[in-house]
Amino acid sequence: MDQLEIVRLTVDSPHLARVAAWQNAEWGHLTPGETPTSRLKALRGECGDAGVPSAFAALCDGQPVGTASLVADDMSVRRELSPWLASVFVPPEWRGRGIASRLVQRVEAEVAASGIARLYLFTPDQQALYRRLGWQDHEALNYRGEDVTIMVRRLDAE
């Protein structure tokens, strides 16, 4: 793989439409009524300058090969938990190359630089990846018809 670069997405990024399409295809079932157009609008709202919210893309030769976001709220039934690592996605043909790990670490660095002590995520099937990266199980629940694990990453000195 050539040089992998993790970049902050901006509202005028040429990669937003592709990233929004990935997100809609992967997680649209969790947000009934969402369309590619509404997902793109929401993604633009995640394109902050620093801290929460922020959106990132992994680029290889200038083309997006993965994405991850840092958002204040990613689960309607656990609004007391914040912020969230969200929308970690790498297309199947790019998996197994450490791209997701690099994206997660970039979001963790963003959170740490903001002085935030904890970060949350939920996943139905990637618990092993996140555990390898230092995340711990927080809670198991059924969210919108899917069994998921909420995980926490402590970034303070606990």
Short key terms for the protein model shown above:
7 strands; four-stranded antiparallel β-sheet; alpha+beta; Aminopeptidase; three-stranded antiparallel β-sheet; 4 helices; 158 residues
The coarse overall form would be globular
Q: Give helix % range.
A: 25-40%
Q: Roughly how many Å apart are the termini?
A: 37 Å
Structural class: alpha+beta
**What is the name of the CATH class?**
Alpha Beta
Question: Under the CATH scheme, which architecture would be assigned?
Answer: 3-Layer(aba) Sandwich
Provide a short characterization of the protein structure.
The chain is an alpha+beta fold and 158 residues long.
General description of the model:
With 158 residues, the protein is of the alpha+beta class. It has a single domain, classed as Gcn5-related N-acetyltransferase (GNAT) (Aminopeptidase, 3-Layer(aba) Sandwich). The protein has 4 helices and 7 strands. The strands form 2 sheets. A 4-stranded antiparallel beta sheet has the order 1-2-3-4, with helices on both faces. Strand 2 and strand 3 form a beta hairpin. Helix 1 crosses helix 2. It is globular. The mean pLDDT is 93.
List the helices and strands and how they pair.
Layout: E1 4-8, H1 16-27, H2 36-45, E2 54-60, E3 63-71, E4 84-89, H3 99-113, E5 118-123, H4 127-132, E6 136-143, E7 146-154
Antiparallel strand pairs: 1-2, 2-3, 3-4, 5-7, 6-7
Helix pairs in contact: 1-2
